Amino acid sequence: MENEKNGRRKFIYFLLSILVAAGVWLYADLTGGPNGTARTTEKEFQDIPIEFFGEATLADRGLMLMEEGSDLTVDLKLEGTRWMISNLDRSQIRFTVNLANVIEPGVQSLNYLLSYTDRRFNNAFDYEANINNVTVNISELYSQEVDVSCELVGSVGEGFTAGQVELSHTRVEIRGEEEDIRPIRYARVTLDIGDSAEETVSQELALQYYDENGNVVDSSNIHAAVETVQATLPVYVTKELRLTVNFVSAPGARLRNTDYRIDPETITVSGEASLLKNVETLNLGGFDLLDLGTALSQNYTTSYYPIILPEGYQNLSGVTRAALRIRFTDMTSTTVPTGNITWKNLPEGKSAEVLTQTLPVKIYGTAANVAAVTEEHIAVTVDLADYSAASGTYTIPAEVTVAIGDVGIQGEYQIQVNIREGQDEPEPAPPDPEPQDEPEEAEEP
Q1: 3-class DSSP assignment, residue 173
Q2: 413-421 and 40-53 as β-strands: parallel, antiparallel, unpaired?
Q3: For position 29, what pLDDT does the model report?
Q4: Burial of 301 per CB tally in 10 Å (0-12, 13-18, 19+)
Q5: pLDDT tens across 190-242, in order?
Q6: What does the alpha-carbon distance between residue 150 and residue 392 come to, in Å, rounded to a whole number?
Q7: Is residue 129 classed exposed, middle or buried when 0-12, 13-18 and 19+ CB atoms within 10 A define those classes?
Q8: What is the DSSP pairing of strand 142-156 with strand 126-129?
Q9: Cα 394 to Cα 417: distance, rounded to the nearest angstrom
Q10: 85-119 per-position pLDDT tens digit
């Protein structure tokens, strides 16, 4: 049994030694090992395309690279370790030439740069090329200007109209060899607006060139100052907009108690469909109903508003101002005397005496609302918070509230109060008024 185990162990050691020896041999063969004595191999690559840079700079100088007479490909022979050579693909080889420093026409010899897209291969190979320098044939550009037009394809939706096509460039300079440029008579772009366009269409379009017979000219050798043109077709819609006014109301002066009209009621406008898509009204401005006064009148008050259209709108009606004619249909006023006068915020250590016994308060509103108000519905309050260091008799502004109906209070009110040093007196409890309607800030018809 012991001999059998020893035999197996020896066999395993034998296999491991073979694997280690093979690994050391493979490492030395592919990488050179620590002494750099790796075996090398060669590989040839045919017709690697030469990449040229700086052609735009060349065109700015009125020059161009001619394919005829120029080196366009190169053959390479690379030498390196078998490992590196086996991992290199021709697509990873770049053979580049910079034209930015060329300043005159003629056949010239330029330096090149050999590089690799994978940095592992940098400085990994010795190489030999079939050319020492790259020969380029530089020619002067022929140039001329041509008109740019636009061909429309598609239609606008029903009820919409289209304006004229607007082009970012109506003429463009083109450059190239004379035999390529001279036949060109004009350039054109094609704008497809689709079916039933309902808003402005704008697209960046490529130029197409034509000769005098309307035939398309190959543009591969043409260098244009701009490669594309922005074409815009404005699409308009005509709408009738209702004129409106923002009415500002207050207690006793509500829009529902008025009779009004706006003349004209509507105007017709035209504009880009995208601007007018969800627009149905045009607001003229605001009107405070208190400007009508607080007395019933059979006469209308007239206010005039200029009709100012937002940018991009066109007024087809020709009307430049509108008139608002308005009056109250139910409005009255009366004076109600009240003795419900009290104070609040009496300073500590002070006492107060109200000297004004009765205060006539003028109210207004509809006849029914005004008739319902009695003395008990009106409360008058003065605030003494600012009189902590004062003594004597003062005329103090008063706050007047009405606890019933929708009525307004006309004018400003004051009462006389005598303030003196002394024991605090309990503040009179104001009457519990019924909640009054909150004033409306704005109403619009």
Answers
A1: strand
A2: unpaired
A3: 54
A4: middle
A5: 999 999 888 899 999 999 999 999 999 998 888 888 889 999 999 989 899 99
A6: 89
A7: middle
A8: unpaired
A9: 5
A10: 888 888 999 999 999 999 998 999 999 999 988 88
